[in-house]
Design a protein that fits this description.
Helices cover 43% and strands 24% of the residues. By secondary structure, it is α+β, with helices and mostly antiparallel strands. It folds into two domains: 50 residues, no CATH class; 36 residues, no CATH class.
Length: 96
């Protein structure tokens, strides 16, 4: 949280986040994603690496899924969230 706060002091046009929810208490994860949504709403570009893919995709415009260091899927966040193939492969569920 402190590192993110320090990164925001100069009001950057681009913010790169590596696993912003990693190691954070579950009750603070929601606050982190609210902060990310707020930054997006004021025009800050955010590049984020996040293993909590469903949560991250809910707060971004586009997503890229890497597998063994290679791009496996790249599309809008909405399309990735709606994909049955991605859902089965990475989110562990099957839609009916």
């Amino acid at each position: 949280m402190l590192a993110v706060a320090r990164a925001l002091i100069p009001e950057p046009a681009l913010l790169i986040l590596d696993e912003p929810s990693a190691g954070v208490a579950p009750r603070l994860v929601e606050e982190i994603f609210k902060m990310i949504a707020g930054l997006r709403s004021v025009g800050t570009t955010i590049v984020m690496v996040e293993q909590n893919a469903k949560r991250a995709l809910a707060h971004v415009d586009r997503g890229i899924v890497l597998e063994s260091g290679r791009v496996r899927f790249a599309d809008t966040a909405a399309a990735l969230l709606a994909s049955d193939e991605i859902d089965a492969l990475y989110f562990g569920s099957k839609r009916t």
